[in-house]
Amino acid sequence: MQHLVIAPVLLPLLAGIALLLLRPLPIGWRRVLSLLAVLAQVWLALLLLGQAGDGGIFTYALGDWPAPYGIVLVADRLAAGMLLITALLGLLALLYASRGTDLEGRHFHVLFQLQLFGLNGAFLTGDLFNLFVFFEILLLASYGLLLHGGGPERTRAGLHFVVINLAGSTLFLFAVGTLYGVLGTLNMADLARRMAQVGPAELGLVQAAGLLLFGVFALKAALVPLYLWLPAAYAGTSAPVAALFAVMTKVGVYSIVRLDTLIFGAQAGDSAHLLGDWLLPLALLTLAIGMAGVVASTGLRQQAAYLVIASVGTLLIAAGLGTAGGLAAGLYYLPHTTFAAAALFLLADSIARRRGKLADRFAPDGTLSHPRLLGGLFFITAVLIAGLPPLSGFVAKFLILRAALPHPDLAWIMAVVLVTSLLALIALARSGSVLFYRARVVNPPAGGERLLPELAPAAALLLLCLGLVLWAGPVHEYTLRTAQQLHHPQIYIDAVLGREVAP
Description:
Layout: H1 7-21, H2 27-52, E1 58-61, E2 72-75, H3 77-97, H4 108-124, H5 128-147, H6 152-183, H7 188-195, H8 200-221, H9 230-236, H10 239-245, H11 248-263, H12 276-296, H13 300-320, H14 324-353, E3 367-368, H15 371-386, H16 392-404, H17 410-437, E4 440-441, H18 451-470, H19 472-486, H20 489-496
Parallel strand pairs: 3-4
Antiparallel strand pairs: 1-2
Helix pairs in contact: 1-2, 1-4, 2-3, 3-4, 3-10, 3-14, 3-18, 4-5, 5-6, 6-8, 6-9, 7-20, 8-11, 9-13, 10-14, 11-13, 12-13, 12-17, 13-14, 13-17, 14-15, 14-16, 14-18, 14-19, 15-17, 15-18
């Protein structure tokens, strides 16, 4: 079991190196190797989820150096869940890319594996410096993936993405350096333990570093006002990359949750709940502004990108409630919104390919082949995203609103969540009307189209959302126990610092 914790980090790294060395091989062999590597990551994530699901927290000390002196990886319920979401998303995005997107530039599969390496490492690392390192790895890979295929629009969006994230990385180093200078450690469990011992003379410095870290993670999550880099970057890149990037903002959300519940959790003395006053207002604002962008969008890919921003707002509203019930509802919403957004990016690409020069723009009188099949999948995706019953979007929003009932800001939460849901419904109905109802039906090109293999990844993502409804009870039970584990950080601290933890 011990070595299982590091396997999700090592596997994509080794696969990426192997794909780089095997570059002379035909593309078919490289696709098979890349897909097998991601399939193995799904299996590893399921194994970890099964182990962590019993409530235990498993650690792996690299070089057998004990925490807090050495590098430690930590697999708890939250990290295992994020690994599984990432692996499933990566598998389906890679299947779609293997239809030809991977040939539009060089080293696609190498960059894809390195992206997964960075993502898995960010979810498993137990210290802030290695969180920075894995952030840089996934960002370096994402720069290459974002620009894959080239083009002026993609290059311009990629440049903004690079500059803003480099600025974020610099601030990350400032915050990490300040915390290390004051507390003498970067191990997250050790930071949480020492936070209560911070004296009055150092309190301001530690809290400033904590808020700076929050700002960096807010930038990664695309929280208002740090979201401007996202719409152009996600709408401008290729569809499978945008689908994979649906989980990128969740890395920022994941880091904010760790910061809020572990380092500045209830045991942090005078710094306890440092983010409490910021999280909920910014989350409500992010949801409102993200949905305004959805309504004002002029193309389907741009609309999907703004829906990602709105989903970050919804997730952090749940986390900002400050209760295990709220966080559990947010953790149920997380896979739903990740899979639904990814499916919309893939569908948008299939639709754009069939509308000629109009592509995905919301312009009437376009042409389209297979409007019923594409329209049917778009309709299911829209129902999921808008949160209509009986699909997982409705269940997730119901759980969030139910958890918000005792909160003093219930009126604001209800108003923003319900109004934005209505706006999402109106915007997606308008999009569907323009793209399908007013479209002139044309026959597919001579020789036919291989439509089913093209739509299979998007359909599989929608089936995963359907699974969240069919197994809503067990999934919510898992997220509730995960949230309870996060709200008792002493369990994590004892596990990482070497004290025995009973499942």
